[in-house]
Amino acid sequence: MSEQLLKVTIDNITVEVPAGTTILQAARKIGGDVAPPAMCYYSKLQGSGGKCRTCLVEVSKGSEKDPRPMPKLVASCRTTIMDGMEVKNITSDRVLDARKGVVEFLLINHPLDCPVCDQAGECHLQDLSYEHGAAGTRYEFQRRTFKKHDLGDYIQLHMTRCILCYRCVFTADQLTKTREHGVLDRGDHAEIATFIEKNLQNDFIGNVIDVCPVGALTDKTFRFKNRVWFTKPVDAHRDCDTCCGEVQLWMRGHEVFRVTARKDEWGEVKESTKGGTGWICNTCRFEKKQVSDWEIEGPTKVNRHSVISQGHYVGLQKPEETMPKVMDGRSPKLLMDIHSVSEVNKPNIELSKLDRPAHSTDFNQ
Amino acid sequence: MGRKLLLEKAHVEGIRTYEVYRREGGYRSVEKALKSMSPDAIVEEVKKSGLRGRGGAGFPTGMKWSFLAKPEGVPRYLVCNADESEPGTFKDRYLMEFIPHLLIEGMIVSSFALGSNRSYIYIRGEYAWITDILEQAIEEAKANGWLGKNILGSGYDLELYVQRGAGAYICGEETALIESLEGKRGNPRIKPPFPAIKGLWDCPTVVNNVETIAAVVPIVNDGGEEYAKIGAGKSTGTKLISACGNINKPGVYEIDMTISVEEFIYSDEYCGGIANGKRLKACIPGGSSVPILPANLLLKTAKGETRYMNYESLSDGGFATGSMMGSGGFIVLDEDQCVVKNTYTLARFYRHESCGQCSPCREGTGWMEKILLNIEQGRGKMSDIDLLWDIQRKIEGNTICPLGDAAAWPVAAAIRHFRDEFEWHVNNPDECTKRNYGLAHYADPIYVPA
Question: Which chain B residues are Cβ-neighbours of A173 within 8 angstroms?
């Protein structure tokens, strides 16, 4: 018997999804602005979600059988749909108001140190506050700080930036055999920590960096080395015994600055192309920083609205070249072509004729 | 004098021991239930009685019991919520401390009705000595054949365990309690699924308050219909109220929910009036998390009717002009009390007790506390009052568990009814640290004791 599809209408757009789907997953199927933001939910981690409250939506009709609306806003990541359910996300003022409140709550104790944060540029909290936050803050008190914890040579913990999404805790629970960290204390002084200063050590623990929506857990091998928007993501793979070996290299020139797992449009680690999960091991992430370690597949496609895509030249609209007009139709010539006097990298073509920056392939012709 | 069901024998000498409790008619309900009633019949009696949950929400117990899923081959659990941590509430403590066998008896009957073979009493960590009392009572009950295998030859087995919490308010929330009982961090679970479907160790579970379970004993003894005759309307039976604050006779009182609030505060049988001849300013009628009410709205509803001590009457007028029965922690404030300071104290409590799982509660409670402290210490601004209102509005209803609501309601009600007191704090920064705003128009116009 084929599985019955249930109808759900989100912001007046109807989709059919199998039973057991959550509102958030159905909305992601529609995509675009209809998908509520999610800071703590991670589809690959069991039990995640429901905590950050950014994905709250209004259920204006419970189901075909029981059309009563739900009195409270519900967390769309943990509410499964019923047949005929009607959901309001961006069409509901109540939802937008509550979401604005949640963003404000998340930001009051956030240090807002984006200029020195390695996550800046790919931070979900940045995106969220850009879309739903206010320009100023109403919080006039000292922001909370924590005692520093050292998590070893690979992972840097900035507890002040943490929004307590619990994703890293679920990751450690579900990917690794030994659980070494968790949430200590409660309330606004709750913190991610290892119990009594221990290093996080096991093969897959590096994935907590990938799941962290903010800059609380960052890569120590990449720390302060570069900004993410200066580096170019490149898909690459290698044969790895412990993981799928499919990664993204974040390169600048020929230097590999950082290695991460491949992520989909919702910022979650993609499934491996071989099937199975796309989590990568610590060796791939932290040790293999040479281009020669990898087989490069090609540039990663990045959403053109992302700040990361500004390093790409593909499909760039160039401003009109006024030089030839000014020079009466004569093309400008380089005053001195360094390659004409150098024996190294001597190109066979005139570099000034290129309508783009010179590339290594140009020199080999 | 109202009728007493639970505390009737509380003052008999030695009632804490099994011999005296049994001599006074204890464990009759177990005999009756196990020998002559089926589990469904007991649930039916509880439904007929109209008993409502005594922990705070007031959900009909019979209905809660009938929601319990009963899949084949899966154990079911009854958990007694003795994590009584609401500021101002101490009724369960009294009951467990003085007549522990009443709770044990109620647990046996309720467990039989729900088909639980292992039941738990989750008690707050601070009640350390009560744990000993309960454990001794369980030992005595076991030695006399009321617990263990094949109780009274009925073929029904029951083991009863007492589990101490570690002193967290949040573990009074039923799903957090279950997490804690499983040995995990006491974070509330995201509902659904509800405990009646997936509770303790993913098995169907019922979590009930101490007083609710104790009330099952008279229901089984006398029948549900008899129990429903006591009280008024949908508030059937008797209710334990722990009265505290500026009254002459603080303590635990058993009322039958037909008396008026005025009678409860001023009659000598109950609170005996406001202490030191002062006047009544305000009251939090159901434990710290319910909205505070000024005297004039406490004694009479907005429509001018007398307010009674029962679920319906106390919540008459919604949150705009009413409050809630809550857990029965009746906190009375006289004219010398400062509402801003009182609200700050409550906000500090909720900030400290927030589990930190969901963002509105984790961040919002701390923010409210800081603003309230500023206002209380004369450093507030007029815009802070509106900001407080906005913060509480954004916490309420947007959190995983009711702790967010519980933190938001007292602040909302204080601003709603006592806004001029907040404004006075802002306008008189020096004076507000030295003296209290006083009564203004909140004093009761009806009754001033001589």
Answer: none
